[in-house]
Amino acid sequence: MGIVHSLFARLVTVLVTVLGAAIVTAGLLSYGDPAIARVVPEATVSLPPIALASPSGNGSTASATPGASAPSGPTTPPGKGVATRVVIPALQIDLPVVAAPSGYPYCNVAMYFVIQGLGQPGQGKATYLFAHARTGMFGPIYDVVMFKHTSASLRGLIVQVYTSDNKLYLYEITKVLLHQAGTTAMNAPINASTEQLWLQTSESTGSLGVGRSPETQLVATPLSVSDADPAAAHPVPKPVICG
Fold first, then answer.
1. How many Cβ atoms sit within 10 Å of the Cβ of residue 165?
2. What distance in Å separates the CA atoms of residue 108 and residue 201, rounded to the nearest whole number?
3. 135 pLDDT exceeds 80?
4. What angle do CA 135, 85, 120 make, to 5 degrees?
């Protein structure tokens, strides 16, 4: 009987020791390190994908994770502005563009005709720009045609046209028409039903204008349109009345 009581007493002592250790350990985990006590599995939040307009504009969508940068689209639809600058890098031509005056054409700028049937870039018609065959204007075109006699080399050149709605249109010269004269030279651009760019300069360094002297016409087809830096699209024109 004494042996039984002795074994029982030892068992109770062991149990108390184990339980005490467990309680102490639990206390350390709960209060000894607050950082450990507050660690919980991070909740996973499922967010729906963001629908982005397809660049092709065909109505399809693409998924993007929240925080991703959406592709920037045009700020305004093309065809809402007028030509403000024309650049032909290969010929070092870079001119502001203004509306043609009713009298003699300006110097130091290129001009667009305001004639029924003609349009502006992005309007699905022909845009018609012209300038004098002088240094600093469309003189380089005149030089190629009249002095170098390599007008074919003009084909394939890229023309940049900026517009007042901050767009940049790229065209490629596909035709070179020499010795054009009379009002019939305007028939094709006026009747154009597709996007085109026409450039004109005279084949003399004197007076310029349809019907006044033979002209060289360059015809260019559209390649692309993109947003432009407003500063690049709005040069300050300084037209000069010249004769």
1. 22
2. 13
3. yes
4. 125
Do residues 199 and 113 make contact, with C-beta atoms less than 8 angstroms apart?
no
Q: Contact, 81 vs 228, CB < 8 A?
A: no
Q: Is the pLDDT of residue 56 over 70?
A: no
Decide which of 223 and 10 is more confident: 223
Which residue do the tokens 């002795």 mark?
A: 6
131 exposure class (CB count in 10 Å sphere: 0-12, 13-18, 19+): buried
b/e sequence 94-115, b meaning 16+ C-beta within 10 Å: ebbbbebeeeebbbbbbbbbee
Q: What is the pTM of this model?
A: 0.66
Distance CA 77, CA 60 (A): 19
Q: What angle do CA 151, 152, 157 make, to 5 degrees?
A: 95
